[in-house]
Amino acid sequence: MSTLTEIPAARRLTGAVCVVTGAARGIGLAIAERFAAEGGRIACLDMGAARLQSAVAGLVGRGIEARAYEADVGRRDAVAAAFDAVERDFGAPVGVLVNNAVWARFQPLDEVDEDSVDRMFDVGLKGLIWTMQSAAPQMKRRGSGAIVNLSSTSALQAMPNAIAYAAMKAGVLGLTRAAAVELSPWGIRVNAIVPGMIGTPASVGKFDEATVRARLATMPLGRFGEPQEIAAVAAFLASDDSRYMQGAALVADGGWTVATR
Ligand SMILES: NC(=O)c1ccc[n+]([C@@H]2O[C@H](COP(=O)([O-])OP(=O)(O)OC[C@H]3O[C@@H](n4cnc5c(N)ncnc54)[C@H](O)[C@@H]3O)[C@@H](O)[C@H]2O)c1
């Protein structure tokens, strides 16, 4: 199997200003890299200041047009200010938005606390509303746009200790569909990705060996996904290659959710 970096990107996003939230690491950073390879101009929005600066410095060092925007997606005013700054800095309205930022805590029901649920929903649900609210006027002026929201297989199948996370990620599918219908008249498409288990430090990186073995045994493709494989799906949904897709959810999980156990 060839690696994704060996497959030349088709430069499907040439010139588009692309905002990627949570772009300082993991899947978000892989999306920023892939979109740059597709010709996009990249606005990395994250609240992890040091990590964000070093990720963007790494991109710029490789000749990528990328800028850092430090903002908490859970704060409507901060998001609005960041999107104003993006349009000013790039001299063009936003054409692509990827809602990837997440704050997650996995707890059994009897330990779920109010602060964690508030934070999870602020970042993973309200945050998507604020970014779409700020991006939509720019996309309307531009005459088109593509929004890609990151859900999770937790929205489709039960995972241990994931009540709040499952609610959040199922909510992402609902708001994706609602926004798709509302924004259709302006040529703005809104779709979701439903990743399975992806090898990022925040996810698989936290499993012990026994958990890794147990999870792999349930996966038809026999491996975890790579951030670059989710980035490839995001590039498809952000580009005109998916121009007849609206309000859809693309599952990329190595067959995990369709397998009989
Ligand atoms: N990794 C997986 O296995 C997996 C599986 C299914 C879905 N997903 C989804 O994919 C997305 C990325 O996952 P990941 O594993 O790369 O996550 P991650 O935790 O590695 O990265 C998340 C990024 O979001 C940023 N962030 C957190 N709160 C923020 C806020 N309030 N404002 C702005 N930025 C904020 C963090 O600083 C971090 O850089 C998430 O939406 C996640 O739920 C991941």
Q: What can be said about this structure in brief?
A:
With 261 residues, the chain is α/β, with parallel strands linked by helices. It has one domain (13-251): 3-Layer(aba) Sandwich (Rossmann fold), CATH 3.40.50.
Q: Helical region count?
A: 7
**Approximate shape:** globular
**CATH level-1 class:** Alpha Beta
| Strand segment tally | 7
Number of domains: 1
Q: CATH homologous superfamily - what is it?
A: NAD(P)-binding Rossmann-like Domain
- The fraction of residues in strands falls at 15-25%
How widely separated are the two ends? 26 Å
Structural class: alpha/beta
Essential attributes:
alpha/beta; seven-stranded parallel sheet; 261 residues; Rossmann fold; 7 helices; single chain; binds nicotinamide-adenine-dinucleotide
Describe the overall structure.
- The chain is an alpha/beta fold and 261 residues long.
- It has one domain: 3-Layer(aba) Sandwich (Rossmann fold), CATH 3.40.50.
- The chain has helices at residues 26-37, 49-61, 76-90, 114-142, 163-183, 209-216, 227-238; strands at 17-21, 41-46, 66-70, 94-99, 145-150, 188-195, 249-252.
- The protein has a seven-stranded parallel sheet with strand order 3-2-1-4-5-6-7, with helices on both faces.
- Strand 2, helix 2 and strand 3 (66-70) form a beta-alpha-beta unit.
- It is globular, with a radius of gyration of 18 Å.
- The two termini are 26 Å apart.
- Bound molecules: nicotinamide-adenine-dinucleotide.
- Nicotinamide-adenine-dinucleotide is lined by residues 21-22, 24-28, 46-48, 51, 72-74, 100-103, 123, 150, 152, 195, 197-198, 200, 202-203.
- The site of nicotinamide-adenine-dinucleotide has 27 residues, from helix 1.
